[in-house]
Amino acid sequence: MASSSSFLRSPASFQPATGACGHVRWAQPLAPPKPHRSPLPPAATPGVPRRLLLPAAAGIWDFLSGGAAGAAAAPLAVRRGMQLFQQGDVAGSVAEFDRAIELDPRQKACTSLAEGAVAVLPRQVHNPMSNQAPDICNCNYPTHRWVSVFFHFRTLAYYIYRFEDAAEQFRLDVAANPNDTEESIWCFLSEAQLYGVDGARNRFLEVGLDRRPVMREAYALFKDGGDPEKLASNFSSSSGGELFYASLYAGLYYESQKDADLAKSHIVAACKTPYGSRSGDYMASLAVVHCQCRNWTLEG
């Protein structure tokens, strides 16, 4: 039985339409639709120059992170934080860095030498010479606040009793800059508080050769052990920063050995050198803060 559905018929079964005279009338093919023409001229759509993409992206970020005003004010807070630390105001320094992060969250991931790392600094300042963690230096800043850790401020963690965080920071830094002698030494100082001198030496973070003779000798002292008096005496007649650095690191070595008296003697001497008292170097400021945190007077 034939189906009544046209979908099942063969093409031959379709008959063309006929006109009144019997002529076959073939259907004319449909013309394609004419494109719509707007009465308005087309809008110009030039490509966006690459030089405009970065400012545009920065503008979007400023909008999402608090605006350009906050981003512009954050570096000022960082600068004030650095100045306050150099003046011995550790609490004020940390407060300014906290403020910088609030103004511009990108400061939280700020780096020195292109490393991105942050450290939690708890409230109490720790004196490595004792087994307790007294709150000294009046560092009453909020517990567990995050601080941008530019290289100049990484050593702050040493003065807080979170040596594990400090050591991790120094190791991350050396992974990015494998020739940083001072990062290696400060990692040792932090881990000596955690594992003892022998344990820290077994984990010693080796770096490349320092171009400064005084730092080469200091590195060898911490890495292999030895006599810190020899380090100090080898540069006792040196000018510039060598005498300062020799005295500072001799004192820090004694501190790792829990010898408070000799540590004090050398670090106070470092502060009193011309370089320690007038250079404006961050490490000179750190030596002064170090003494303040231990109530060591620089007078006399």
Automatic annotation (TrEMBL):
Keywords assigned by UniProt, alphabetized: TPR repeat
Record carries keyword Cell membrane: no
SUPFAM superfamilies: TPR-like
Domain of life of the source: Eukaryota
TPR repeats: 74-107
PANTHER family membership: PTHR47908, TETRATRICOPEPTIDE REPEAT (TPR)-LIKE SUPERFAMILY PROTEIN
Protein name: Tetratricopeptide repeat (TPR)-like superfamily protein
